[in-house]
Specification:
10-stranded mixed beta sheet, about 350 residues, DNA polymerase, domain 1, about 35% helix, two-stranded parallel sheet, TIM Barrel, 2 domains, alpha/beta, single chain
Length: about 350
């Protein structure tokens, strides 16, 4: 049976043509899914009864199912454990704030990059998610949470640009004119840095925001925290980031998780100032969230977060250089749903 969630409008139009139905039915179904966010064929009353029955019998809607969830009483953050049809599990998180509700979604089952501060990296890599599985996280979690998602961040499990085709296709669906409630400037793709794919994304026309998982402006320190820096150092990433900012007319966000004694020194401030002066950018300072639930070893076990007081001081010194600095508040760490904590122990 064919999955219909995860198909673009043109693909849905082709599907209806293939079952001897008018092409315009594709646009209607796309609007049901992504405008009205309805997946129950019986409620699609602009389709004939016979067509609704045909769709029910010959196609599938969802590719994921709910397995479990956890709710943070402290912040109202909710973490979802979702199961794929081949019995893999992934996590997605909805984070409510005063003026927005953000979905943090995943693009892979696990992650191959082995970043030392990230729980997902400690579980290893299983496979890429399909477009349907990426988009399904948006439809399923939003319906359960009961509040419209306004922002989407590709910051869950996995590296989005290592699953480029499916990531791009999901972005095309989310940024379509027929998809209501979302806009390009409320969607962010977070990457550890794949230069050619950053350029490809800039040329794709989707023009969403881009965040680079930086964590140090020094090559040697970044390589210890993120082994991918040995393959794609900052010096190789910079031209791609500059190209992305120019082509999309957006600022690059540098994600900077703060580790005591590692990247919170005065020399780190100076090096960040040099880097950020080279392109339109802002920096997001993030307290390190414990990954002890994954029983890490080596450098992962030794990492400690910079204190709140020192993070504020670090931010002030960056601002003295006329840099735009944001502070990320930890939400969901009580249910292992905060930045860097998503992982499945056994999959």
């Amino acid at each position: 049976m064919i999955h219909l969630i995860g198909k673009t409008k043109s693909e849905l139009e082709d599907f209806f043509i293939s079952i001897n139905e008018p092409k315009y039915r594709g646009k209607q179904l796309f609007e049901w899914f992504y405008n009205k966010r309805e997946s129950d064929f019986s409620k699609m009353l602009n389709f004939s009864k016979s067509l609704r029955e045909k769709l029910q019998n010959e196609s599938k809607v969802h590719s994921l199912s709910f397995s479990d969830s956890q709710f943070s009483i402290q912040t109202s953050t909710k973490k979802y454990l979702l199961q794929t049809e081949d019995n893999r599990q992934i996590e997605a998180v909805i984070i409510p704030e005063e003026k927005r509700t953000t979905l943090c979604l995943s693009t892979q089952v696990g992650c191959p990059l082995d970043c030392k501060f990230c729980a997902t990296g400690l579980m290893g890599f299983k496979r890429n998610l399909t477009t349907a599985e990426i988009v399904d996280q948006y439809l399923l979690t939003q319906k359960d949470y009961g509040k419209d998602v306004t922002n989407i961040v590709y910051m869950g499990m996995g590296e989005p640009l290592l699953n480029y085709e499916n990531t791009l296709k999901s972005l095309e669906i989310f940024t379509s004119e027929e998809t209501r409630g979302l806009s390009r400037n409320r969607i962010t793709v977070s990457t550890s840095g794949i230069p050619q794919r950053i350029i490809d994304l800039a040329n794709s026309g989707v023009k969403v925001k881009l965040a680079l998982s930086l964590h140090s402006a020094f090559e040697d320190i970044r390589s210890k925290l993120m082994p991918i820096n040995n393959k794609y150092p900052i010096s190789d990433l910079l031209p791609a980031l500059q190209f992305y900012a120019k082509e999309t007319k957006t600022r690059i966000t540098f994600e900077y998780t703060m580790f005591a004694g590692i990247n919170d020194r005065d020399e780190d401030i100076r090096e960040l100032g040099k880097l950020m002066s080279k392109l339109p950018s802002k920096i997001n300072l993030i307290p390190f969230n414990s990954i002890s639930h994954m029983t890490p070893d080596g450098i992962s076990a030794s990492l400690k977060s910079t204190t709140r007081e020192k993070i504020l001081e670090f931010a002030d010194k960056l601002r003295e250089k006329n840099l735009t600095v944001l502070l990320r508040n930890t939400q969901g760490d009580d249910i292992a749903a905060a930045c860097g904590q998503l992982a499945i122990k056994k999959n």
